[in-house]
Amino acid sequence: MSIDVRPSEDAGTFLATDQLVWFGEVTDADARHLRLGLPEDQRFVVDLPEGPEDLHSGIYGVRPMEMSLPGGTIVPIAGLTWVGVHPDARRRGVLTAMMGDHLERTRAAGTATSALHASEAAIYGRYGYGLAVLTHQITLGRGTTFTAPHLEDEVAGVTTHLVTMSDPGVAERMRACQLGNAPDFPGTIVGTPDFFTLMATESAEELRDKERRRILFARRDGQDIGFIGLRREHKWEKARPSGTVTAGTFCGGPAARLALARRIVDLDLMGTTKLENVGVDDPLLDWVGGPRGTGSLETWDSTWVRLVDLEAAWPLRTYDGDCDVVVEVEDRSAPWNAGRWQLTPSSARRTEAEAEVTLDVAVLGAGYLGRSIGGLLRAGLVREHRPGAYAELARAMRTVVEPEPSIGF
Ligand SMILES: CC(C)(COP(=O)(O)OP(=O)(O)OC[C@H]1O[C@@H](n2cnc3c(N)ncnc32)[C@H](O)[C@@H]1OP(=O)(O)O)[C@@H](O)C(=O)NCCC(=O)NCCS
């Protein structure tokens, strides 16, 4: 049975389906959030013939976003989001139909790459998404020392300033700062101005007893050079203040990050800093002397990347080493990518030559932002027909520094 996926015509039913799937609290602000977050023509639905009557069987949406690649180019991407299948319609192929629809539409729109944050790790690999970026969650104690002798001169000229994210102009400053830094941090994903407004909008219901989200900017010579978002939470223990500051993703070069890191571990009344999204090669770990210099460290998946159009996506980034490898690409969800490709640093070309490596398109997505995929051969997730061919490919795709994590979208 083929399942029809069509554009949403009713924002209310789209939102109500999402709220059932994600069992979130329904507030007066939700409808406004929806309009802010997701362009009207980027919401899609499935209604199974025997499906639920008042709601959709499945929904998904696409945020138009931009992502920086190794080499510094910033390209448009489809940010897949709002994926949900009605609990009564699950495991009947609705997601599979929506994924096929998404890949076809994205290709037709001329966008080479799709990216997402996955709710569960097992869902998206089958549709050709590869785990492209890892992220650390780190806690630090009050007054943690950061040692970076060769950055001290530069950091001396950086000042920090605390503002409220919802204040006029703050979201625009954040976006400009993120775009400016993106080329130096491949993997950075920048949302549209609407997406920033969405992040800055916090209703009274959402906040309850929480602090409004603040932004700590790093500035030099009157210019924003970095920022981090944060929220503080009170706690008193044995009459002593021991609150927690929870902070998001660093934006900025090394000196800006150092100034921001020093400031957030030195906020009055706080005992612990929880950093929710730190790149695995962020200098922070080296500044504290490694994992045992933190209170705790956990590693999770951040961005998943899907090469929707392999031929178009491949030459958009640069490669660190030379390579010339014939790869048999398996791709069940986007058959136009399947087949044999000669991959070199300048192009992906169709070829009749014998395959030297066989792999799923998800492997190329996993390595697209520079994360090392060399271990996948040992893991038995890639087949090699010419010894050394996969190492050649993996070495060329790998960057010196691991890619930057993105915030959830
Ligand atoms: C995840 C979700 C969208 C799957 O939708 P679905 O319509 O049931 O998926 P399909 O019927 O198309 O299943 C496709 C395949 O994926 C598998 N699959 C689906 N969800 C899975 C999960 N959470 N874990 C592992 N496998 C899963 C199915 O078993 C099926 O496998 P098969 O092709 O070998 O038979 C749905 O369960 C859901 O809405 N979950 C809650 C919201 C959510 O997690 N959304 C994802 C946001 S990132």
From TrEMBL:
Source organism superkingdom: Bacteria
EC number: 2.3.1.-
Coiled coil feature spans: none
Transmembrane segments: none
A Pfam cross-reference name: SCP2_2
Molecular function via GO: acyltransferase activity
Keyword set includes Cell membrane: no
Enhanced intracellular survival protein domain: residues covered: 313-405
Keyword terms: Acyltransferase, Transferase
UniProt cross-references to PANTHER family, sorted A to Z: N-ACETYLTRANSFERASE EIS
The protein's name: GNAT family N-acetyltransferase
Source organism per UniProt: Nocardioides potassii
